[in-house]
Amino acid sequence: KLEARIKEVQSKIEQNTHLKQKAIELREILRDRNAQLQCETQIKESQRYIDYFGEELRRLQAKGSRASFSSSSNYFSESAPLTEGSTLLTQQLVSSPNQSLDSPGPEQVDIEEDISKRYTNLDLLEADTPINKAKVSLKLHELEYKVDVEKKVQEGIRNLHQLLDPAMSTTDRRRKTELHEKQLESQEKMALLNHAVKKYKDLYLGEEDLEPFDTFTVGLLPGARKPVTGKLHLTIVEAHELAHAPTRLFRDPQTVVMVKVDGNIQFRTRPSKNDSWTDSFEMYVDKATEVELLVYDQSGDRTLPIGLLWLKTSDISESLRKKKLEAEQDDPNWVPAEVAQQHDNSESIIQHKINKENKSADSSITAWFDVEPIGRMRLEINFVRENVKRRPMDKLGRAGAFRERKGEVHEMNGHQFVDRRFYHIMKCALCGDFMSKLTYQCEDCGLACHKKCYNHVVTRCKSQPMSKLDSNEDNLKHHIPHRFESLTIILGANWCCHCGFMLPLGFRGAQKCTECAVVCHTKCASLVPDFCGMTMAKANLMLSEAKAANNRRRTFHSEDLPQSAFDNHQNPLFSSSFFSNTQSPSPSPQSTTAQENGPLQSSLSTPTIHKFNPLSARPSSLIQEGSSFQHISHLFSSQQHERTSSHFTTPVQINRKVGLDDFNLLAVLGKGNFGKVMLAEEKYTNELYAIKILKKRFVLDNDEVESTRSEKRIFLTANQERHPFLVNLHSTFQTVTRIYYVMEYVSGGDLMMHIQREQFTEARAKFYACEVLLALEYFHKHGIIYRDLKLDNIMLCLDGHIKLADYGLCKENMWNNNTTNTFCGTPEFMAPEILLENRYGRAVDWWAFGVLMYEMLLGQSPFKGEDEDEIFDAVLEDNILYPINLSKSSVAICEALLQRNPQKRLGGGKGDAQDVKNHIFFEGVNWDDMLNKRVPPPFLPTVSSRADTSNFDEEFTREIPILTPVNAMLTEGEQDNFTSFSYVANWAMEK
């Protein structure tokens, strides 16, 4: 294979060398100035291609044997004469034939570094970026989308032509003329796009040498169009090497650039004869996705498109963010992890920070960008995002949380379609057309389609149990399975025929049917209907016709059947279920326990959702219940037993009831759109507790019943062993309008407040990390993931030890191999697999633990941004920097925990918490002493009295502790959702 690839690359070098020689010869005989310029441009482009293929050949030869290296050298010596640049390259390739392949020379190292360099999407669009596989991949996918859009435009023009009245009025004749001009422009634009597609297909090389596609090290896929709001400033400076119209067709042509934002014309430059403009325009854009520049020559009334350039607003915004971040991080004392572990000094960090404040960087982007199919244009671009929730980039702070409600479910033949908003270019599984932004996706199998197409889907959801699929189904007699084989994407852009997502070049997890050529993900192959050789649209049409025919047949037979037949049909002895051999499995001990504790399992608790505070800077916790499809291993396991996350029995509550009259409300500790958390004193014992108060109407209106039940079960799990580092539940009770959760009161405040007061030492950060680790270990051993670990949720007791609070985002039944896909958490702490909407498991807690340790050690977040979108981009893309004076063990554990691939992350394997405990950072820790609180804490918080609330936010503590009136009354049926809610812990009854 390697020799074949070397020959392929050599052939491409020869072709482009030959093309370059012909262009040089043609330039000498041409008299048309524009034609001569095009020849010069072709010569330069051919040289770029030669350099690209030459570097690829050089890299392949470094992998081969000396024999293959020698044969390549012979090829160069026998081939046609090359240019000066290519001759130099050849000399470099053959100068050291005896050099060891295990010790690459400096040129080889440079190439490998260049190949491994990571470019942003905007970088790949710049003309100065050398041609590479990432650039070719991006261009092919973008051009494929552009071609499809232009086809839709042409189809629309043809339809409008047909609607015009043959007996044309003056207005209709004018419209026809306009349509004809648009049709010609569209055809010329299509020719440009097709030319560009051919160019990049010729540049494409196979991916046999590529590493497997890593979904945990990429941000937006090629083609992603994420809407951004803000002010756009664009200056069109000049252009070079454009393919101008021949002067024999356009006498004295002038060049104009037209700017479109999301397809709408916003600006035109003045005509120019020398491709120089320096024209600027500025506009406010609302949720814009793309800026397109169309370059065309004009002479009189004639116009001819000669080039096309497009930039996505999200790419512009992301590049500007990175540029600003690089300017702020231009500090030699802050380095990547591998460099930090090689230093042991702490030179002039404070001094450099002082000097850095005087630095200023240009906030705009000035670069040459590729014009397709040929040419380049210099632009100055700036984009100021509109941030309603702007926050400081280099400080820790707190803010409220919100919960995004789950959208309406649309059921269609077993599919559970929900509205999903994707920012990738996707294809509808039914009609095959492109989709963007709003998409309907099945929650179970992941089938994606247009909103207009979902009600035409008559194929059953294959993720449903087979018994459901077989019952009352009108089957199509076309059951020809696809012959799927593993595929390496060779040419062009491809999309999964089931979930609609793009399959990037080099992606390994793809399957292609050898019969009908449909392509899909490996994980989607078993979900694709057995309609080989038939489009989904045709299959659904045939199924709908078969269903209608069967309905008519049933109606006809029912009219002729005697009444006795109906009587027999209704008799249980004749029912299909009576003769079924399928039996439900006997209940397991866990199931029995769950049934015996029915009132307990249906109990409720509250989600911890706080109102957003515009003055604060901590990002809000997010949760989006719209989920992507389930993992294949869970789709067909209807008989699989699911372990419960805890085993406990309802305490016997004799002569012990708790109600609002048992407490004196003393102060407000916090509040949000859910209600309030108040400090209260129990009248009979004088003990202090924190009471979380949730309005019943809020629970019902926001469909929070099940999630609050889950949170209470988490509390009961913590109560089982009275875990020292988890907040325990005292009791729950209810009134007509509210439900109440009485919890342990931790008066020392949270770690966010303490780290804002003073920086933690490494010893103090290590102490808190040990106790948090033990709390996470307890949860994981009971099949629970926490998902919202952050400084705000770690409370400090007066004895100096910590307690984890706020179980609103916890997830049960998350054992070693179990996964989920709910989009939730706090932006800085959300693992990349959550942001990429992949299925995830317990490893997300260890990512958050890594972010927590970084913040405790350094007093700042590893991921900086002014809003949530920028933070998401930083989590997916940015390098994490460390000060050179940070200890090697601290850098090592942060690096191990902050691995973007969860399979490589510390704690992400079967060992879970034990793997983290064994890290060198925790060397010397006696975990038994730590669990039993025998290790003296490094810091003790202080309070002036039992009810002192100085460690809590004054914004809340200064409020009067009263319950606001609730006017909304609940019906009897609504109250039934809160039956059997009351609960009192065993330890509370002993007091």
Automatic annotation (TrEMBL):
Keyword NADP: no
Ranges in a coiled coil: none
Protein's GO biological process: signal transduction
Keyword Kinase: yes
Domain C2: start-end pairs: 212-327
Transmembrane segments: none
Source taxon at top rank: Eukaryota
Biased composition (Polar residues): 596-608
EC number: 2.7.11.13
InterPro entries linked: AGC-kinase_C, C1-like_sf, C2_dom, C2_domain_sf, HR1_rho-bd, HR1_rpt_sf, Kinase-like_dom_sf, PKC_DAG/PE
PROSITE patterns on file: AGC_KINASE_CTER, C2, PROTEIN_KINASE_ATP, PROTEIN_KINASE_DOM, PROTEIN_KINASE_ST, ZF_DAG_PE_1, ZF_DAG_PE_2
Broadest EC class assigned to this enzyme: transferase
Residues the entry annotates as binding ATP: K692
Domain Phorbol-ester/DAG-type: 414-461, 481-532
Keywords: ATP-binding, Kinase, Metal-binding, Nucleotide-binding, Phosphoprotein, Serine/threonine-protein kinase, Transferase, Zinc, Zinc-finger
Catalytic reactions of this protein: L-threonyl-[protein] + ATP = O-phospho-L-threonyl-[protein] + ADP + H(+); L-seryl-[protein] + ATP = O-phospho-L-seryl-[protein] + ADP + H(+)
Every AGC-kinase C-terminal domain range: 923-991
Chain intervals with Low complexity compositional bias: 577-595
GO terms assigned for molecular function: ATP binding; diacylglycerol-dependent serine/threonine kinase activity; zinc ion binding
Region described as Disordered: 577-609
Location of the Protein kinase domain: 663-922
Annotated family: Belongs to the protein kinase superfamily. AGC Ser/Thr protein kinase family. PKC subfamily.
Protein's name according to its UniProt entry: protein kinase C
Organism: Rhizopus stolonifer (Rhizopus nigricans)
Gene name tied to this protein: PKC1_2
